[in-house]
Amino acid sequence: MRTAALRATVVALALVTTTVAAPQVTAKTNSVPAITDSLAKAISLELTGKATRDTLARIATVDATDPAELATTASLTRSVAQANADLLVAKGLPAGSARLARIRLGHDSMARSLREGAEPVVAAAPNDDNAREFTGYFPGGKPLTLSTGTIPTRPVVFAEVDVTTAVRLGTEMIQRQTGKPVVTEAGGYRATQVTSIRFGNVQEPWFKGDAEIFAITGGFDHNGDVRADTLTLPYLDDENTTYYPNQIVLHWNRYKYSAADIVFMEDDGDTNYLNLAKALVAALAYILDSGVYVPLVNAILDAMPGSWWTDDPDFVDACYTITRDTNATLTCAGGNGTVGVRPFWVNER
Q1: Whole-prediction pTM
Q2: Which residue among 46, 56, 145, 345 is least enclosed by CB atoms within 10 Å?
Q3: Is 149 exposed, middle or buried (0-12, 13-18, 19+ CB in 10 A)?
Q4: Where are the domains of the chain?
């Protein structure tokens, strides 16, 4: 999440733009936390049955699993289907585009006790990284308060969103809203490739599982209009770990100037991509090309509704003014990210 110091660093960097009110997420009762909590309770109600308990012990791992595999009753099948439909609405994604509901064992240390018959607790993964406690449900639906400070010895199964799929679909939606035509060069085009990337903090405590990082790039297109592009970084799961993806992140045939910015975000599960796309379009539409390149990080950050900074999407870091010829290892503005980049030629064939 953005600290005051990090926000001050970002604000101190020059940008002239117009503040635009961004749309707010409204449906509290249909929020991701409410939907996953409802699913967790529905699962717990079915765990009084031996068949469902045995199935849970067999399929629950730290890797997310479709709860449809657990739906051994008609009632739970309906609950899972309803959760999937509601999650797509909450995430601002098209109806029927994916099954987003998932269940996951809280920690691999819980697997043995679950297989040996220990009574599990089912809970929605806390949406706030700084939460001190969360509510789980015993088989039969009786609530239990658990602390986030330590990993429980009791097996905890989390109901959550398949954020990997949501990020992919969501960034595609943003791209459709904000992307614009490109200018091609003979034989190919110039790009920038990430050779290494590392973050000191990816904003994910133990109860959240792996991070789901995505990036928004900003620059001016050939007509002098601001364009925002998106990309996913599905490999970037852990903090203080260096990855070597050789991923292309900037396509210079899309930009008028030989400079662009990258903002790295982490989706905790509650991001509404439709609202994010609309907010970006509204904020960036009012930035005019003055004949020289200006950083666009602030405009991208200001497009986020203020309430989203409480937890999702988490601001991870931002790298300003990466040029077409940059060949270096860069420390991003907040000091959290280190990114190695180099020029790359993309052949036409």
Answers
A1: 0.77
A2: 145
A3: exposed
A4: 4-19+164-347, 32-161
